[in-house]
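Technical annex, item 7. During the second reporting period the consortium partners agreed on a shared format for inverse folding records so that results from different sites could be compared directly. Each record opens with the tokenized structure and is followed by the designed sequence. A conforming record, contributed by the partner at site C, is shown below for reference.
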């Protein structure tokens, strides 16, 4: 099993090396070399779900590479593991960090700045028989918009930052890891899901969080929500407003959930279905149910969670509510 996981990691490392160093007109060939014929790509709005290499290359990678010149992949977490959601059958490789470049050409209607710019990303790649068969790549377009001088959201309750990687600097796990450490991390993540999934639990919010989190937790949320530090401030600056701002929350499950070493995470398509009741992110109630597509990456310390990096497709969610954030902020119509 370890050899299978290491082989999957090697496949993705090789893929990144060729993808990141290829000229824009060579990207299609690189993608075809490393992906299967039935490749499925899930991305952040306005890219959404794509079912061919040609679409992924032409809609996402080529425009991005032309816009962000001298692109670098700056990884903070690299891990792999077997997916709990299919009985630990499939292997997925996860990369999280920033794509950094010089913002030299417009992208998605966002005007170029000529300045160093970072696009937060997290990518799950399913590897089978030496090929990538599925990808879930979520990024933080509003984070890039803020760097370009735009203000996509009216209200943010937590801090706006270019977010660092793990405090321990131990997230790049190219080598084999102790299997028992990954099992501990997955257990901690599942404990958190079970503890926080019960919305009627008769505990204060902070005491409920203490079941799963260290007191000095770090929650690295997306632009529009922001980053929060300590259980007290996380409860005030995100968890409390989030619970107060939605009703009829339904957990839809995850496509993939895995862990390796002291790190783990999951993604859903979508994770949640819920209805805004007004106030969250400064937005009004809509009377409309919507989906949230979310990636969470965690770092465990001892038996509790210490850090959490979150990617939420807020552009997709608010567009379902009738608000096209890209169009409203840039003045251009975004792709559907």
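Designed sequence (site C submission):
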């Amino acid at each position: 099993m370890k050899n299978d996981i290491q082989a999957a990691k090697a496949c993705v490392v090789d893929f990144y090396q060729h993808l990141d160093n290829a000229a824009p007109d060579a990207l299609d060939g690189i993608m075809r070399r490393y992906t299967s014929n039935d490749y499925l790509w899930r991305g952040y709005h306005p890219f959404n779900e794509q079912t061919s290499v040609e679409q992924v290359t032409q809609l996402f990678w080529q425009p991005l590479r032309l816009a962000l010149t001298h692109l670098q992949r700056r990884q903070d977490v690299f891990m792999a593991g077997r997916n709990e959601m299919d009985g630990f059958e499939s292997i997925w490789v996860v990369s999280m960090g920033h794509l950094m470049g010089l913002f030299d050409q417009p992208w998605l209607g966002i005007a170029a700045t000529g300045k160093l710019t970072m696009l937060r990303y997290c990518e799950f790649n399913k590897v089978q028989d030496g090929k990538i068969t599925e990808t879930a790549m979520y990024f933080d377009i509003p984070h890039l918009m803020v760097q370009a001088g735009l203000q996509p959201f009216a209200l943010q309750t937590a801090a706006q930052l270019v977010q660092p990687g793990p405090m321990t600097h131990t997230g790049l796990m190219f080598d084999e890891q102790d299997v028992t450490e990954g099992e501990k991390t997955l257990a901690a993540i599942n404990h958190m899901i079970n503890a926080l999934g019960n919305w009627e639990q008769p505990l204060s919010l902070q005491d409920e969080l203490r079941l799963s989190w260290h007191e000095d937790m770090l929650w690295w949320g997306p632009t529009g929500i922001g980053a929060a530090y300590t259980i007290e401030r996380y409860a005030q600056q995100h968890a409390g407003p989030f619970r107060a701002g939605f009703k009829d929350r339904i957990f839809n499950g995850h496509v993939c959930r895995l862990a390796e070493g002291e790190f783990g995470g999951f993604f859903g398509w979508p994770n949640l279905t819920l209805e805004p009741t007004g106030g969250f992110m400064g937005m009004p109630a809509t009377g409309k149910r919507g989906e949230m597509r979310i990636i969470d990456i965690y770092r465990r310390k001892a038996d509790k969670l210490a850090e959490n990096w979150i990617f939420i497709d807020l552009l997709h969610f608010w567009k379902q509510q009738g608000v096209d954030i890209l169009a409203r902020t840039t003045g251009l119509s975004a792709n559907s």
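The longest helix spans residues 2-21. The two ends are 41 Å apart (CA to CA). All partners now use this format for quarterly exchanges.
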